[in-house]
Design brief:
- By secondary structure, the chain is of the alpha+beta class.
- The protein is built from six helices and eight strands.
- The protein is globular, with a radius of gyration of 16 Å.
Length: 185
Amino acid sequence: MTECPLDLITRRLLLRIPVLEDAPDITRLAGDPEISGNTLEIPHPYDQKAAKEWIAEVSAGLRAGTEMLFAVTGRNTGELYGVIGLMDITREHSRAKLGYWIGRPYWNQGYATEAVCAVLDYGFRILSLNRIYAFYLTRNPASGRVLDKCSMRHEGVLRQHVRRGDAFEDIAVHGILRDEYLSSE
């Protein structure tokens, strides 16, 4: 796998590797309690130091071939909307976990769906993965609708699978196989 993949371009978006200059925007958007509250791995509060450390980790994951993360930006404006990527990429099993978040000012505009579909295409066509899966908190059904729109199948619910603060929460699992993706075109 190459360290610096090509940018992914969609009708309205440019998906590119996050850079240190993104740290203030990532901090502002990911620092919103609505974002951290609806994701499995973003802490709150989220400060600029955490954003810079995360960006540095992105480079390490790229070099190791275990992660492929993108800043979701406006194609014409360059404005940062969120982050998306494939994580836990395993060549042995030819699979990866999809994760994403979009900043609240950009919700309900179809950016998440557009980005997810682009990353699925990248995962199957460029990385030649066999399976891509995603988890989301069941109390965030909007995330499930995004995955449905990109032809991912609901595979089940893992009851009280994660702890957020003092509460255990259910997570839903969606997945799609390469053959399903390619035949859905």
